[in-house]
Amino acid sequence: MIRAAILDIDGTLVDSVDLHARAWQEAFAKFGHKIDFEDVRSQIGKGGDQLIPVFLTQEQQQRYGEELTEYRGKLWKQKYMPLVKPFPKVREFVQRIRDDGKKVALASSAKADEVDVYKRLAHIEDLVQEQTSADDAERSKPHPDIYEAALDRLGVSATEAVTVGDSPYDAIAAGKLGIASIGVLSGGFGEEDLRAAGYREIYQSCADLLERYSQSFLASKRAA
Question: Which CATH architecture has domain 4-15+85-219?
Answer without folding.
Answer: 3-Layer(aba) Sandwich (3.40)
